[in-house]
Amino acid sequence: SLLDLQEPSNKRVRPLSRVTSLANLISPVRNGAVRRFGQTIQSFALRGDSKSPGCAQKSCSRSAAPTPPKRRNSVLWSEMLDVNMKESLSTKEIKRQEAIYEMSRGEQDLIEDLKLARKAYHDPMLKLSIMSEEELTHIFGDLDSYIPLHEDLLASLGEATKPDGTVEQIGPILVKWLPRLHAYKGYCSNQLAAKALLDQKKQDRRVQDFLQRCLESPFSRKLDLWSFLDIPRSRLVKYPLLLKEILRHTPKDHPDIQILEEAIAIIQGVLSDINLKKGESECQYYIDKLEYLDEKQKDPRIEGSKALLCHGELKNKNGHKLYVFLFQDILVLTRPVTRNERQAYQVYRQPIPVQELLLEDLQDGDVKMGGSFRGAFGNSDKAKNIFRVRFQDPCPGQSHTLQANDIFHKQQWVNCIRTAIAPFQRTASTTAELKELPELSEESEENNPSAPNIRAQKRQSGVAEMELDESTSECGSILDSEDAKGAKTHRTSSGHRKTREKQLSGKRKETLV
């Protein structure tokens, strides 16, 4: 009975020691260490396969390793003070020192994570040929180059720290160091493409298996690879908050007051520049993925776009999904498609320049969405969160009724479109002339590139950063019968006329461009 009690204890210790060694074996880049890393992973599979189901079930219930924490264990600055020191400082000064210590501790954690991303992920995947060097460079960027940058700040803060653990002035250090964060422009601009490539590579079984084993190891703190790659960006947006917190607890007569205000202005300028560069890169990324069915769909305003105001998935009146892009000068409706396992966007109808764009904010229930039989038997298809976009001039194409996921995303779309068209709004007298415009029919889902008047618009879904995995099958048919379209238009013309009368009666609010 003594042996029976001791055996589970040994089983608990052994797996835990091996799991812990995984973190130690990943870090070195020498061939021997990499070989041991592979052998350790292989031993996990062999050990699991060699046990009988009954034994495995028994050991799992007894010897499961404790779940590693997601966050590091940290202590407050005030917890490291002795009683006499704490009594000599005011509450406001303690909070100020806490904020300074939080910034210092954050830099130390960031440096550790940047090094971990290289040693635990980049180097092993390169040595084991899980990814090519070119792919890893595209995903990781020049992450290593930022380690000395943050080490310099950490060293400066260390030099400014007195023997009692307090920092008298931090402002001059920050004013000198913060402009160096402009170095992150390139890294942040590449994040969208890096994330897309990483998601694509995760379809590879070897990549998937490696990342899963790392996720289950204690060193990862249950964070996936992208969480480590995104840490620099999340750190950047924290700097203004940290500086404002230090400033809030700094006495009015302290010499740091004006310098901290200057430092806040500097970091806000740096973030603004990074966001601008990131926006241009994101805009170009999506422009390169557009596919045109007809040369007439191409517009120089698309290629010349430098800002993407809003983008995401929306449904049209037939319930089909579209992916809509609102660039600063033009609205482009697309269908998401897959080309050789890569996402692309097939331009749907004719893009609408914002100066020619008309927006209608529709009320819930004004329009029935979907083409199913249910609409003939009840009101279940009356749509919510809908709006309509179209050309001001009816000649280029038809109108498009679009549905967002919820009221929040609908309002986000409506606000973005109104902001884009505001510079082109005409006088109130021109709004009155809108009532004289010929009626426009709602366009059917079929996409016919040969008909110039049927490529108008379909605008987008409410989530600006929604991931897409639509397949080519959702793309639908490109060419359909003109006779069928004509018949459908004839059958629905009376209904559209009634709808138009409702519009003119004032049930809907219109914004004219």
UniProtKB/TrEMBL annotation:
UniProt key word Lipoprotein: no
Composition-biased stretches (Basic residues): 487-500
DH domain sequence ranges: 95-277
InterPro entries (alphabetical): DBL_dom_sf (IPR035899), DH_dom (IPR000219), Endocytic_GEF_Adapter (IPR051480), GDS_CDC24_CS (IPR001331), Net1_PH (IPR037853), PH-like_dom_sf (IPR011993), PH_domain (IPR001849), SOS1_NGEF_PH (IPR055251)
Subcellular location: Cytoplasm
Compositionally biased residues, Basic and acidic residues: 501-513
Domain of life assignment: Eukaryota
Protein name, as recorded: ARHG8 protein
